[in-house]
Design goal:
10 strands, alpha/beta, single chain, Rossmann fold, binds adenosine-5'-triphosphate, ATP-binding
């Protein structure tokens, strides 16, 4: 069972041009990295996938469960681009609050928050106030909040933005481990994010899918003389060059 967008059309406002027209996408298992230039439609796809926004035409499903069903919200979790600290609230309180908002009892949310923080390896920062955490740690708290209800699909909007190289490494390792249990779609502007952990790569431009396939088929778009360390960047540039 996976997340599927079928023939979706979406515009921000009635008089605005559609960002996505007749857009279809099926999320593969494992970790998929979503690439594309500014304004390509990455956040919009993630919002439709998370049912935070509803398509004007077409539908979004998890298996046979429509995005309007309560079960859909349990199965699919979303972490927005602009995650913010809650001053005074600890990491565990933050995650438990997210669970409570999703309909859990206080006791259940509190208990699951501990487990979710352990999954993102932040047990030792459970009692730290969220405004005392680094940007990378705060995003891991965001992932814990998204996972608190045992989602099967995790949609992450630029989770590594603003992280230093070491934090990126930690975050990518974390995603590599999570994808044993959860399918992840993660947007990014950093092609290095797809490194070894990504199973699939999807490239969007102008609201259309330019490429969607395994990381190897994506890298195969790089010109033949590309040095190994530059393959992802070269493949991305090549694909976009064909579009422009
Ligand atoms: N709230 C909004 N109101 C009006 N237009 C919007 C809104 N959000 C996005 N758009 C427009 O929709 C299009 C797609 O935006 P989207 O944020 O999905 O792209 P993106 O690929 O995530 O871009 P970025 O990499 O810059 O975050 C852009 O043309 C953008 O200007």
């Amino acid at each position: 069972m996976t997340l599927e967008l079928s023939s979706c059309t979406y515009a921000y406002g009635r008089r605005k041009a559609a960002v996505l027209t007749d857009f279809s996408y099926r999320l593969p298992p494992g970790l998929t990295v979503l690439l594309g230039p500014n304004g390509a439609g990455k956040s919009t796809v993630l919002k439709l996938g998370a049912s935070v926004a509803r398509p004007h035409r077409g539908d979004v499903r998890f298996g046979t469960t429509p995005s309007t069903a309560k079960a859909f919200r349990k199965a699919v979790a979303w972490m927005p681009q602009d995650i913010v600290a809650m001053p005074g609230m600890t990491a565990r309180e933050y995650v438990a609050y997210a669970g409570w908002l999703k309909g859990m009892s206080r006791a259940d949310a509190w208990c699951r928050a501990r487990r979710a923080l352990a999954r993102v390896e932040l047990t030792d920062r459970s009692d730290s106030r969220t405004n005392d955490l680094s940007g990378g740690q705060l995003r891991r708290v965001g992932v814990a909040a998204a996972l608190v209800h045992d989602a099967q699909i995790l949609l992450l909007d630029e989770p590594t933005a603003g992280m230093d190289p070491r934090q990126r490494r930690v975050f990518r390792d974390l995603l590599g481990r999570l994808t044993d249990e959860v399918s992840v779609l993660m947007s990014t502007h950093d092609v290095a994010d797809l490194a070894e952990e990504a199973d699939h790569v999807t490239v969007l431009a102008g609201g259309r899918v330019l490429h969607s396939g395994t990381t190897d088929t994506f890298l195969a778009h790089a010109p033949q003389d590309t040095p190994p360390g530059r393959l992802a960047e070269a493949a991305y540039t090549e694909l976009l060059g064909r579009y422009e």
